[in-house]
Amino acid sequence: MISRISLFLIISYLAISCTTQNPAEVVITDTNIIDVETGEIAEGKTIEIRDGKIAEIHNSDNAIDGENIIDGSGKYVIPGLWDMHVHFRGGDSLITENKNLLDLFIANGVTTVRDAGGDITPAILEWEKQIENGELLGPQIFTSGPKLDGSDPSWAGSIELTSVDQVSAAFDSLESLKVDYVKLYDSTIPADVYLAAVKEAEKRGLKVTGHMPFTVDFNEAVEAGLDATEHMYYVLKGSSSQEEKITEAVRQGEYGFWAALTEVIETYDEQTAQKTYEQMAGSGTAVVPTLHIGKVLAQLNEEDHSGDKYLDYIGEGIKETYQGRLQAAKSQSQEATQRRRNLRKLFVDMIPDIHNAGVNILAGSDSGPYNSFVYPGISLHKELQELETAGLTPLEALQTSVINGPEFFGVSDEYGKVRPNYVADLLLLNGNPLDDIENTEDIHTVIVEGEPIINDDESTSLLEKVVKR
């Protein structure tokens, strides 16, 4: 017969055995953790990662057992970056080249992207599954699937809508694909159809973002439930004291896009702009400024990109798509070039007031085929730098990616923080990005759902290591 003492010892042993955890799969020791919400830095911390999530964070006082121990001393940990505007497109012949771009995101610490519409949706949905199952290295992808536009749309693969009664069926099609949100385009879509689509998304509980035809007043789109506006053109339109008059002139065929835009610029009014920003903030309408691509395109006829190191990682087919914008820039007049530069300056000048009004800014690069020399991954870092140049602090610039991205898709309880139970998408940086936003480019280790890619060899860049993996 087992004595009470023996029984107690057996039970105690079993209890200890059940509660003892296996060694962490990844441990980052003696590091500095940046809270991107507050800007506070927790020094001398150890992070334990298990099953793709942050398991524990504690002081680096005790010896830690782990399968992969990374010395984080003198380094800084932030959550993985989110690029909230990218493209995968170009047709079936470019599927493989688009797939190869996934490496560039990871090598630059971009662990989540928002695909803003294209013509290779089945491939993207397959990549999503492979990434989720650990069969493919790549960022988490939120995709819109095909864009919604009018007849004879500008972009291949778009769903054509010419009347309001077609909207419901289009949304049925998108929902059957299990898209993450809806993307609207503005090349030919009628105003009533555009607004009906925004309202349909609202009714179905889907996020909806987009360009906007100039036949729509911006405040109408915001009131209808537009969740985010792509680029700055449409916020600018809503900042015109004569928007209603300009909108009507476009509807009557008196103005094309560029003529209307010229009128918008000339009638830009700070008081009207402030009311528009406040309306956006109150309605929860975010903006994706894409300032970096604006800079690249504004300088396209003067800058020589033939020596860009990232061209070595871009497929020949995608490089060919760069020629469209490049040739157009070379052939445009000096007046048109100056107009683009003036427009970009106005966009940049608007950023501080938009931010101060409480509008959520989403960092997006607009990288991908057809967008010349705006390279996946690295261009998100350039976007953060442009936002800082526009007037945001390094912390505020980081928040547009790390905090606002997860919040937009309602997953801020899993992403955007270095805390226990959050997904272990992390960057270990060699320098403090709060001191210099360019330090986001100086990456020692990228961790993707708990899997580390370490740059501990000075002779090989992290980019080369990921691509050769």
Automatic annotation (TrEMBL):
SUPFAM superfamilies registered for this protein in UniProt: Composite domain of metallo-dependent hydrolases, Metallo-dependent hydrolases
Gene Ontology MF term list: hydrolase activity, acting on carbon-nitrogen (but not peptide) bonds
Tagged with keyword Transmembrane: no
Record keywords: Coiled coil, Hydrolase, Signal
Domain Amidohydrolase-related: 76-451
Coiled-coil residues: 319-346
Leader sequence residues: 1-24
The keyword Protease belongs to this UniProt entry's keyword annotation: no
Transmembrane segments annotated in the record for this chain: none
Protein name per its UniProtKB record: Amidohydrolase
